[in-house]
Amino acid sequence: MATSKLMKLMAVAAAATWWCRGVSFVAPPTSGRSALSQTRLGHGYQDRMSPRAHDPGYAEKDTKGAKPFSHTEATGETTEVTFKKRPFGILRYAPGADGKDAMVMEIIPKSRYPGDPQGQAFAAGVQSGWIVKSINGENVAGESFAKIMDILDDEVMDQRMSQHFYASQKEPREGEPAETPLTVVYQAGAGADIQWPEMKED
Questions:
Q1: What is the model's pTM?
Q2: How far apart (Å, rounded) are the C-alpha atoms in residues 16 and 187?
């Protein structure tokens, strides 16, 4: 009798162990920040990043008066930069007239350690006001801001932005994220009337 009860208990324990192994209460890790198929950064980017008063085309009462820019105004020198991984260290981009083109607005002003991915732009000498001219050899001047952002797939994420970010995942993607290493050609000359604030290290 005792042996029979013991056998039943062992059977129940074995079944419970099998069931626990087969059920997971934590979703398996899906693709992370580096997974290209999961990101649609272009849509909702401006909502997440909150335009500033000095931005080109900013139309609120506290505007600094910078007019919308176009890639045709960028007639200065071009600079080619290769980024080995994401994020690049560019905190924020801004669109030009009619939601086209992309201008570098803010850069993380330091590199914390050798090989710091978020110090790549700073180490390469990327400057605020440069517009994105081409990505991996593809000319993107005059393309929609959303498409350029989707191709760059470059955004320093913050928990405060998560609601806007996940909402953006529902929108159709305009461009496929480019593979890294990723080469970007920037051009200076646009946004001459922008009153740039001084960027300081934390």
A1: 0.71
A2: 64
